[in-house]
Amino acid sequence: MTPVLTAHVRRFAYDDGPAAVRDVHLALERGALVAVLGASGSGKSTLAKIIAGWALQGGHARFSGTLELAPGPRGAGGRLDFAGGHDDPRLQLGAWGERVAYAPQRAGDLLTGAAASVGEELAFSLEQRGIERGEMRDRVRRGARAVGLEDLLDRHPGRLSGGEQRRLALGCALVERPDVVVLDEPSASLDAAGAEALVELVARLRGGGATVVVFATGVDALVRHADRCLLLDGGTVAAEGTLDDVFASAAFAESGVVPQAREREPGCPMVGAEVPATGVPLAELERVTFAYAPRRSGRSARTVLDGASVAVHAGQVIALTGPNGAGKSTALRHFAGLARPSSGTVRIGGSDIAGVPAGRVAATVGTLFQDPRDQLFERTALREVSFGLGALGLAGEAARSRAFEALDAVGLAQRADVHPYELAASEQRLVALATVLARRPRVLLLDEPTVGLDGRALARLDAAVTGAAQAGSAVVLSTHAIAWARRMSHQVLALDGGRFVGA
Amino acid sequence: MWLAVLAASAGAAAAGRVLGKVAAAASIVVVPFALWAFVIHGLFFPEGRAVLAALGPARVTAEGLAYAGGIVLRTAALVVVMLAFSTWVEVPVLRAALVRRGVPAQLGYVLATALGLASTVAERLERIREAQEARGLIVRQSLGGRFVAARLQVVPLVLQLVDEAGERAAALEARGQALPGRRTSYVDEPDSRAQRTLRWVLATASLAVVLSVVVPAVAGVLGGGR
């Protein structure tokens, strides 16, 4: 059977840098599901971008290899040979993208930034190809239904939660009915229903003849359906074959890829036995209600928290779960003083924080945001971690050594002088975590901390959470990784209808 | 005339239920400008004859005040018209209207993002400020406090926007923005016979005004030259 897409990467680098990917050969057959696994820095996302054509744009790519697309009903196909020189052929990304769709690791990167609604965002590529409005609306509706966004067609993309934005990016990639779908960490930030729907969606796409390539740092439900697997390490193939072949290889054990999620062994949580909830809670929401104001007049406010109450004591780890858009991040923002309740009380260390500036609350509360890039704004990782330590009474050498210590705790001491934007997504999350750890907060808030982390990074995160709890901090985390949450917390709560209930 | 334009655009803004936003945004631009204009022209206007008050070299003259009032009014009218339009307009509908009239898709996109830039920048600044607050930055509610905070946020904002622009360029191209050919639009562009008529009347009236000024002027120049 002729492959629909063949990619042969002899060498790929950005400018004069070292090879990010080398000696990788991928032949994708019609209807196949191929999983490409790799830890942070393995070249996984770069390979995804090469296949999608994105890496070849912008004039910084040094690529020698071949990309070949078989002819099909959507285009004539063809073969492009790259020698890594200036007279290489130019890949027409508009035509390539029509047949090879791509949902990047950072879902927001696929969005136009100009659409005022989810429907418009989904329709963008159809508009560019002159699809008539009737058919366009029909395809947008079906695309939205496929990714579970049919009720949010009128919502502004900027107002979507992290998981909803991931669904939108998937919808945008699929609405054109491509021949090949390249998905980089598609399960990240998806709730359980979303992850299950993704598996079904991929099965339907394959049934329709599409080929799907999924890139991941861990073995999730979608990866387990793959009929072929490629393990990347150091930018090249470390193992290849069926899932069982790859999982059994020595390279897999050493790769840092997260193996299949394990449920907690009963009575053995990593953070230790249940902590008695006595004394004044370190962090508490009491009957907190919060609604997002409508973006345009005439629409009603969206209530997210509705009389929600939860109390976290010293040494306790509480995990919040719930579907995408349930309000987990909003609840964490209340603890940090970044969102204020319309009614109810938020207490930190027993004191009501109404009217206390968030910057002052930060002396006690440390927050890891959902998108690490939202909290990275300095020129180097070290400066990033040092920011704000002065306000805690640490100056000069003391601040520097505290920042180094935090970077070392997340395994990034060697990367202290690198610009945070030049780090891999997984490392960016770890730097963001270091910024929080350096402050040694009594209350630690972690918003989806596991997303995009490989095995090594997860071990660092686990150590940070258990270390904080054992040092007497209260930890509140939100996550969709239920098995991990059960292993790492004393109690798992679900946000349902704006309130916390036992999960 | 300028007062009529100001009143008409304020009336239109009120009808579009955006008067509050427009007034707030316009005052940020117009009030400092008005203060400057009245200080410069109200106090120092060499052509002023009717002196209302004098303090050393500074003389408040009726002509100076009238001149300052005139330019403030003109500026206010232009600012309010622009703000009323950009606040009221639904960017997707505008983009649809441009697409239907054959304006290049890239230009439509640039216009749409330019009109939405203020809110994008505001959202980004807020996120960066929150990240900094979460690490101990205390933002005072005063104008000065906000200014100091904003200074810390500008560099990361620019870096973020530049970084995103690179990725976005690839995303837009992959989604077909640079493809040749006809475009369609997801959003319906509401248009009525009354609106079409009004547009033609306004266009004709504008042309008539221009001609009524230009034709006599040209005729005068030509006639004077003989």
What does it look like?
The complex is a heterodimer of chains A (503) and B (226). Chain A folds into two domains: 5-255, Rossmann fold; 283-502, Rossmann fold (3-Layer(aba) Sandwich). In chain A, 30% of the residues lie in helices and 25% in strands. Chain A contains 15 helices and 20 strands. In chain A, the strands form four sheets. Chain A has a six-stranded mixed sheet, with helices on both faces. In chain A, a hairpin with a 2-residue loop joins strand 14 and strand 15 (351-352). In chain A, helix 4 packs across helix 5. The radius of gyration of chain A is 23 Å and the shape is globular. The relative contact order of chain A is 0.12. Mean pLDDT of chain A is 90; it is low at 263-268. Chain B has 226 residues and is mostly helical. In chain B, a hairpin with a 2-residue loop joins strand 1 and strand 2 (58-61). The longest helix of chain B has 33 residues, at 193-225. Chains A and B meet through helix 2, helix 3, helix 4, helix 10 and strand 16 of A and helix 4, helix 5 and helix 6 of B.
Feature tags:
heterodimer; A: 503 residues; alpha/beta; Rossmann fold; six-stranded mixed β-sheet; 15 helices; 20 strands; globular; B: 226 residues; mainly alpha; 2 domains; two-stranded antiparallel sheet
For the secondary structure, the number of strands of chain A is 20
Oligomer: heterodimer
Uncertain ranges of chain B: none
Q: What is the number of E strands of chain B? A: 2
- Helix/strand order of chain B, N-terminal first: HHEEHHHHH
Q: Summarize the main sheet of chain A.
A: 6 strands, mixed
Number of helices of chain A: 15
Distance between the termini of chain B: 35 Å
- Give the low-confidence spans of chain A: 263-268
Estimate the helix proportion of chain A, in percent.
25-40%
Read across the widest sheet of chain B, the strand sequence of neighbours is 1-2
**Main pleated-sheet profile of chain B:** 2 strands, antiparallel
Radius of gyration of chain A: 23 Å
Give the name of the CATH architecture of the largest domain in chain A: 3-Layer(aba) Sandwich
Helical fraction of chain B equals over 70%
Number of spatially distinct domains of chain B: 2
Tell me the structural class of chain A.
Answer: alpha/beta
Q: What amount of the residues of chain B lies in strands?
A: under 5%
Shape of chain A: globular
Secondary-structure-based class of chain B equals mainly alpha
